[in-house]
């Protein structure tokens, strides 16, 4: 017995968030697997949420990390993370990860991120990355990417 849907519907793409001016907004929901025995989000999961938001922010800004890595140009590596936990998030909470580029260097970039529940800040942190050659040495980021980061850092209204 095979299953055939009665109507062919397009498959929905995963949420990628969107830019409002130069700030990226990424929605997420808390599931049971995200929580610990006390029913609050396990602390390391906030880093995962921030990573997903950063990855999608870069993707919709036009930065193709996968193609660069597969083409042998290099890859980003996290060099520093500072995070503060302010309030607990719980099962079924609807959250928003808000990301803003705060620093751009020749080989580096820093992004500040806040995890919000409505107007309440749950967690915030800053992640710094360096662009590395395939041999693992810091090198200049692609100029087009530095230009994008600079526009975002300056708060330029950004609509890819």
For this entry, give a set of tags:
single chain; 160 residues; alpha+beta; 6 strands; 34% strand
Write the layout of secondary structure elements.
Layout: E1 18-20, E2 23-29, H1 45-61, H2 65-70, E3 75-85, E4 94-104, E5 108-117, E6 120-132, H3 143-153
Antiparallel strand pairs: 1-2, 2-4, 3-6, 4-5, 5-6
Give me a quick take on this structure.
This protein is of the alpha+beta class.
How would you sum up the major sheet? 6 strands, antiparallel
Low-confidence stretches: none
Tell me the structural class.
Answer: alpha+beta
Strand percent estimate? 25-35%
* Percent range of helical residues: 10-25%
Q: How many runs of DSSP E, i.e. beta strands?
A: 6
**SSE order in H/E notation?**
EEHHEEEEH
Q: So how many helices? A: 3
The best one-word shape is globular
Round the mean pLDDT to the nearest integer and report it.
Answer: 92
Biggest sheet, spatial arrangement of strands: 1-2-4-5-6-3
C-alpha-based Rg, rounded? 18 Å
Q: How is the quaternary structure best described?
A: single chain
Terminus-to-terminus distance: 46 Å
